[in-house]
Structures are given as C-alpha cells and as structure tokens.
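#lab-general

N.A. 3:47 PM
ok so I finally got the sequence cleaned up, no stray characters, all 309 residues accounted for. can someone with queue access submit it? mine expired

B.Y. 3:52 PM
send it over

N.A. 3:53 PM
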Amino acid sequence: MTQYALPNIPLHARWTQNGVTIAGGHGEGNASNQLPCPLGLYVHDDQTVVIAGSVNHRIVEWKTDATSGQVVAGGNGEGNRTDQLNDPTDVIVDKDTDSLIICDRRNRRVMRWPRRSRTSGETIIEEIDCWGLTMDDERFLYVPDYQKDEVRRYRVEETKGTAVAGGNGRGDHLNQLNYPTYVFVDRDHSVYVSDNENHRVMKWHKGAKEGIVVAGGRGKGNALTQLSYPNGVFVDPLGTVYVADCWNDRVMRWYNGATQGNVIVGGNGRGQQANQLDCPVGLSFDRHGNLYVADCGNHRIQRFSIEAR
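B.Y. 4:20 PM
back already:
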C-alpha cells in the first residue's frame, strides 16, 4: 500500500469477528466473480480494492458492493509479453502517475501498468525475485528480493536500487533476512519487512546496518509470542504492527515495543466460516480503519469492520 495517508486507528481498537466477503468467495476459476488464492491488495479511499491474483495471472479491481471484478492488468494468460503477467503477488497504486505498480513474480520483474490504457505495461525493474512492494511519501519504491534476502529502495526511473535491509546472506542474525516477502515503510522511512522463514517481522530504521524484531522471532509456532510464515504487514501512525500470520490463520497486532501480540481476527481454526481464515496473505486498511484480508485458501477478500468506540 502506498503510504500517502494512513488511518488513525485507536490504540485499543477492536474489529468485528465475522468478516464480510467483498470479493471472490466463489471458489477457484477464471470467472469474473472468482478470485483463486488472492495475495497482495491495495485499498482506495472509496474502498475499491485492487487485488493481485497469482493463479489467474491478472490484477483485478472490485468496486464497493460489486458482485464481480474487472481485470485491470494481465488476464491474457501466463507469459512474459508486455500484456501478460506470470504469478503476480502484489500491487500498489502510484497516484502521481495514475498507474499500477506490480510485482510480476515469475517473470522476475516489476511493472508499471497505466490505469487508463489497461492493455499493457512496461518493465521498470528487471531480474528481481520480488514478492511484495510499497512506495513511500517521496515516491521511493521498496522491493524485497527473496532470493538475495534483502530489501532494495529505488528512486523513480532507477533500475539498480540500494539495499536498505538485509543483503548479508540468508540467516537469522539481526543484519540478515530469510525469504522476505511483504514490506511497509512508515513516515520516518523505517522499513518493516515480513521475514517469512525466520517467522518474524523486522524493523530497519533509515540507514541502519541491522534490524530489530518487532513481531515474532521466537521460532515457528502459534503462541502469542510467535508467528508462522508471516506475510502482509501494516504499521499505523502509533507504531502498532499488524501482520497476516499465514499458517496460524489469523491476523495479529503487536503494539510498539511489545514482546507478544494479540489476535484481532481469525485464530478460530482453519476454515471458511465468517470468523475463520485459511492462510491469510495480504492485508490493508481503508481510511476508516476497516481491515481487509486476502484470505488465500478461501479464495476471497474479507473485510472486518472496525467497531465504534
């Protein structure tokens, strides 16, 4: 998610435990009302959701209360042409250029796709094993490389980038990462990254040589001190970390400086009921503080409304 405006989520906010399916929920397939294994997502101010659908090699947009989505990038089969994608895993919107920025994972590239034409995109970063991406308020692009175990920052039109997290080989030391997936950047330009196979979320202050653990880091497990293959990550202005705890089928909140988290949605066993998740991957919030979760195994996007104080 592009960090132009963040919701002011109250410190002890609560969300409804039964989610509402706002996209997909009709199983696997290529129909316009289906969303097989959604991964990354971006939420507009009007609650329109843009979703990376890796299985269908397309990016789809679902407007509020819509019963089907519209393909806005890809959708022309698996491939590496400029009008094709291959297993896209994340998408953000660059408002300044009115375009989508897409991690086209299996093509090992990051693409810019104009929202007006929708017919084809252009490669802006090549030969990168990306999974997630984000952009800060100065329009720097941040992209984890899960093979090089680092996060790189790119200026507009820059193709090489600079390592800002990891880059010291695969491992679990504080200056290392192990299969980084999704990334978030706060207003101070600190980088938060889901260190997937270390089962932790790391924070790297701007210019730091090593990171600090802000969620998990106690090995793989389902205790409140642990995560299991974390993916989507979001940080609010108070420094509270929200993370999609994929293999534990829950979304957790870790307060700034906390040594354990708490479950805010899910955590009721793997399943397809309204209060259950099946390997959540991407997550985001709208400007009202409502939570959106890419419920990969259930092939749907769930919205959990924030409760009034």
